[in-house]
Design brief:
- By secondary structure, the chain is of the alpha+beta class.
- It has a single domain, classed as Gcn5-related N-acetyltransferase (GNAT) (Aminopeptidase, 3-Layer(aba) Sandwich).
- It has two helices and seven strands, in the order βββαβαβββ.
- Strands 1, 2, 3, 4, 5, 6 and 7 form a seven-stranded mixed beta sheet that branches.
- The longest helix is centred in the middle third of the chain and has 12 residues.
């Protein structure tokens, strides 16, 4: 949040939902280096959000391992997310495709994306 100049409380209340899952990865020292949240939206579609990786851990593959875990936990349901536009190709590698027009969220360009159950990880 601070890195992207979005230092404000972003409480949406969804962390307390019974099906909400928070995934994270730690370094050997036990510090969290990457995280994401997996939710269930109306109709059973799953939603990945709050994907964040410590700058020093970027490029190590840790976020990719979390994404594969989240996709596995979705158990064949469609998955949606709002990708920061500069990461669209990264998400495409997990079978996501653009599903709407680009929009700004707190001044940062995002693109809605969707992964169908039949998609494969590239």
């Amino acid at each position: 949040m601070v890195e992207q100049d979005c230092a404000y409380l972003d409480l949406d209340g969804r962390d307390a939902e019974p099906s909400a899952l928070l995934l994270w990865a730690t370094a050997e020292a036990g510090t969290v280096v990457a995280t994401l949240r997996l939710l269930t939206d109306e109709g059973g579609c799953r939603r990945i959000g709050r994907v964040a990786t410590e700058p020093a851990a970027r490029g190590s593959g840790v976020a990719g391992r979390l994404m594969r875990q989240a996709i596995s936990l979705a158990k064949g349901a469609p998955i949606v997310l709002d990708a920061q536009t500069y990461l669209v190709r990264w998400y495409e590698g997990f079978g996501f495709a653009a599903s709407g027009p680009e929009f700004l969220d707190d001044g940062i360009p995002h693109l809605p994306m969707r992964r169908e159950p039949t998609s494969t990880i590239g």
